[in-house]
Amino acid sequence: MFTTIGIPVIIIGALGLVFGLILAFASKVFEVKIDPRVEEVLSTLPGANCGACGAAGCAGYAERIVNEGEAVNKCAPGGMEVAAQIAKIMGQDTGAMEQKVAVIHCSCGGYNNTSWKYNYEGVESCKSAANIAGGPNSCSWGCMGLNDCMKACLFDAISIDANGMRVIDYSKCTGCGACVKACPRNLITLVPINRTVFIKCSSKEKGPDAKAVCGSSHPCIGCGICSRKCPVQAITVENNLARIDYDKCINCGLCATVCPSKTILDLMAGQRKKADINPELCIGCTICAKVCPVQAINGELKQVHAVDKDKCIGCEQCVAKCPKKAIQMV
Amino acid sequence: MGYFGELFVMAMTAIFIQNFVLSRFLGLCPYLGVSKKLDSAMGMGMAVIFVMTLASAFTFLINVYLLLPYGLSYLQTIAFILTIAALVQFVEMVIQKNAPALYKSLGVYLPLITTNCAVLGVAIINTQAFRSDGVTPYNFLDSTLNGFFSGVGFTFVLLAMAGIRQRLEKVELPKAMRGMPIALILAGTMALAFYGFMGFNI
Question: How far B110 CA lies from chain A's nearest CA (Å)?
Answer without folding.
Answer: 16
